[in-house]
Specification:
By secondary structure, the protein is an alpha/beta fold. The chain contains 6 helices and 9 strands. A hairpin with a 2-residue loop joins strand 8 (204-213) and strand 9. It has a single domain (9-224), classed as Dihydrofolate Reductase, subunit A (3-Layer(aba) Sandwich). Strands 5-4-3-2-6-1-7-9-8 form a 9-stranded mixed beta sheet, covered by helices on one side. The two termini are 23 Å apart.
Length: 226
Amino acid sequence: MPDDRIRPHVLMMSEITADGKLTLKRGASSKRLMKYMAPETEVLLHETRARCDAIMVGSNTIRIDNSHLTVRFVEGKSPLRVIPSSDATLPPDANVLDPEAPTVVAVSERAPADRVALLRATGVDVVVAGADRVDLPLLMRLLVKDYGVSSLMVEGGPTLNWHMLHHRLVDEIRLIHLPFIVGGEDTPSLVGGMRIDSEEEMIRLSLKAHYLCGTNLVTEYDVLYP
């Protein structure tokens, strides 16, 4: 039986508004809020990227934000970019398919062969991890075994964040607090898809640090699973 304990140390890092939102509205790029981060906080974000072996975001975030996921504001090596995309539907012009940094796209067994071939033609690695959808614990094991990843940063949207937490794959959370309230019943928040029936199922956090970075409050937590 596979050992799910074999995985990288995982840090989830995100900017959130005072009411816990990631964007201005559903379908809007998070970059519209991130431009209000203090310069010092942008440096912190890129310093964190440079300290990690790999960085992961979901395919929907790539479609909306089209981020490069590279290190730009500090000296350091850009991490391996990891994109779970069960059906291999990344846009052909996605910035993560460029040669600025190595990229791994994780797909499922049901991903169409022609889409997989198009991705491989860009020069990225495509790994199959799961039958109907990407199996995140399996992907974590593959990152350790095949790519030597010992530390992974997740800059995911609410869906990826939920699945990583649901599978108990996140060790730490670092939040950059933006002093805005945007509201919206369907505006994406830090974690989506969460369905619990009791307090005992809540994923608890232990605050270990809080500080100002420029004008932004940053909080850091250890994740405590039920």
